[in-house]
Specification:
Length: 485
């Protein structure tokens, strides 16, 4: 590979690098929800049960969650350019396998390879952005990341809802593949080596414990929504995940060069912003999971209509994320996050009175306001936390943030779907739609309670205007949390 030396950041043309990173991350995250409304079509074509077919979505989240903790180690081992091209190349190969898949096993293989590449993309993009942009411009830069995080998963159901009604389900992968290949080709010429390599020693036991720990938890909680919390496989998976994670975390504190640096959690502001973004991401993914189920199975709407409910909110979130980034650069994160969490809590409560006759306009407006709130939370809170870390710790902080967000999305969605199912007045063959909708309303009460907890935590954030943050190259982080000002 050429250009192995780290480039002088001041001499780098940032625009093409930002473009290829955002495109790659957009495609990677888009694939998390792209199959959401296509599952019934895949079930019919490949003759699958619902429990089997849902793994096409779950496996993507599982492998993503497993890869993210390893990414900090990969960033410190390989050049930026080589790592990006490898990750994006894996994603493109996985997509091609999905296009050619003659059966479920091959399709699953393609999804696993896709997810392995995608799992590297988000932490890598966030780390590069924090390296190439000065601290006073990070809010704007991370606003673009927020655009990807919110816009891509929101667009997934819309795109898939339309395509699968018009064409074969493989058209979803046919859409993504040329874009992925084009991104790899452009990146080959424009990507530079940004991050510095420290060549940490490979600790294979940590990688195994991390894989079993995060994989076990994600598998267990993802399966709970289908099989119930008392299922033996669910219990064993969660127990194995917890035990492996305990040993993994203990080992990281003992290693001189840990794979995932848990010491970043010693910084109170980083920890509190991580918890807030976890709850916000639960609010985002859970709503996108529960609303289509309610609309299609209980209220009689089509897959395309349920996707269209998400569209205005997705567009608004995409539009507002860079604007919120600029507001963050000028005023800090605290009040942005507080207002955003207030909107998230209110909209969760507005979704607790759903009926068979709830209008499309009501669902769309509430979801749009909800997405506005999430856009004010995700990247401002994330950036405020990462700004407290030294440059050496940023890759570890980024990996930690993305790992916790992925775990929260899987666990939170599983819990809310289980609440929805268990709270339904009747789920039998003769159940009335109103009986099942009761479970949806209860699930949003739980979502509102979670948002309220995050709102209370947000009042304990300190202001994080750039001039107040001093980058300390030695310490884990310079920031601290103090009472609301």
């Amino acid at each position: 590979m050429r250009n192995e030396q780290v480039q002088d950041i001041t001499q780098i043309n940032k625009l093409p690098i930002v473009a290829v990173l955002i495109t790659g991350a957009f495609l990677a995250i888009l694939n998390q929800t792209l199959l959401a409304t296509a599952i019934p079509h895949i079930m019919a074509d490949l003759q699958l049960t619902e429990n089997t077919a849902q793994w096409l979505t779950t496996i993507f989240m599982l492998v993503n969650g497993i890869m993210i903790p390893i990414t900090a180690f990969l960033i410190e081992t390989f050049t930026t350019r080589r790592l990006f091209l490898s990750a994006m190349g894996m994603f493109a190969v996985g997509t091609l396998i999905c296009i050619a898949a003659p059966n479920f096993a091959v399709l699953m293989t393609g999804r696993i390879i896709q997810a392995a590449g995608a799992g590297i993309m988000m932490p890598l993009m966030m780390t590069i952005f924090l390296f190439i942009f000065p601290i006073e411009k990070r809010g704007t830069a991370m606003g673009m990341v927020g655009l990807v995080i919110g816009f891509a998963p929101a667009m997934g159901p819309v795109v898939s809802g339309w395509l699968v009604e018009q064409y074969h389900w493989k058209s979803l992968f046919l859409l993504v593949f040329p874009l992925a290949v084009l991104d790899v080709i452009i990146a080959y010429f424009v990507m530079k080596n940004i991050t510095e390599r420290s060549f940490p020693k490979v600790d294979y036991l940590s990688i195994i414990l991390s894989t079993v720990g995060f994989g076990g938890l994600l598998y267990g909680f993802s399966s709970a929504g289908n099989y119930g919390w008392s299922d033996q496989v669910v219990i064993i998976s969660i127990a194995a995940g917890v035990i492996a994670l305990v040993f993994f975390i203990r080992r990281q504190f003992q290693l001189e060069q840990p794979i995932l640096e848990f010491r970043v959690l010693k910084n109170p502001l980083f920890t509190i912003t991580t918890v807030i973004t976890m709850i916000a991401f639960i609010g985002l993914i859970a709503a996108e999971t529960i609303l289509p189920i309610y609309m299609q199975r209980m209220a009689g709407y089509t897959a395309f209509e349920s996707g269209m409910v998400i569209m205005p909110g997705a567009l608004l979130m995409g539009f507002m994320s860079p604007i919120n980034g600029r507001i963050f650069d000028r005023f800090g994160a605290r009040w942005l996050v507080i207002i955003g969490l207030a909107l998230l809590t209110i909209t969760s409560l507005l979704y607790t009175n759903l009926t068979v006759d709830t209008s499309l306009a009501y669902l769309t407006i509430v979801f749009t306001v909800r997405m506005l709130g999430i856009s004010m939370i995700m990247m401002p809170a994330t950036t405020a936390g990462l700004n407290q870390l030294s440059k050496k710790m940023i890759p570890h902080g980024s990996a930690m943030t993305n790992t916790m967000r992925q775990v929260a999305a899987s666990i939170g969605t599983a819990i809310l779907v289980t609440v929805m199912t268990n709270s339904a007045l009747d789920t039998g063959e003769n159940a009335l739609p109103s009986d099942m909708i009761h479970g949806v309303n209860v699930a949003f009460y739980v979502a509102a309670a979670l948002s309220l907890v995050a709102l209370i935590l947000a009042f304990r954030m300190k202001e994080t205007r750039p001039e107040q943050v001093k980058e300390n190259p030695q310490a884990v982080g310079a920031g601290s949390m103090k009472a609301g000002q």
